[in-house]
Amino acid sequence: MVTNQVRITDTTLGDANQSLWNGRLRLEDVLPILAKMDRAGFYSIDCWGAEIFESLLQNLKEDPWDRLKILKSHFKETPISALIRGRSLVGYKNYDDELIKKFIELSAKNGVAIFRV
């Protein structure tokens, strides 16, 4: 018997942050809910990459790499997913292959398990 399985990726810390809070959702604002999100049974939590990276640097003056490490330390059961914009990664210009490879390696090393392109 074939069973179809629905998997849900939570985008609250990614798309909702961008759409509802203009990318200004601070880490201290989300820390209290992270354990509950981790236990909710999501397939993944999309919380890094694309617009998030730039917003952390420009709007919140947060280090995106530090934020990723902290999120990973709270998401023990649920994989982190990240949106990357193809060759432009998390920015708006195309990067060379070596930089892309290094960025992906560092992202994975620091907690990203699923990359959406």
UniProtKB/TrEMBL annotation:
Entry's Gene Ontology cellular component terms: cytoplasm
Molecular function via GO: pyruvate carboxylase activity
Gene3D superfamilies, sorted: Aldolase class I
GO BP term (any one): gluconeogenesis
Protein name as it appears in the record: Uncharacterized protein
Originating species: marine sediment metagenome
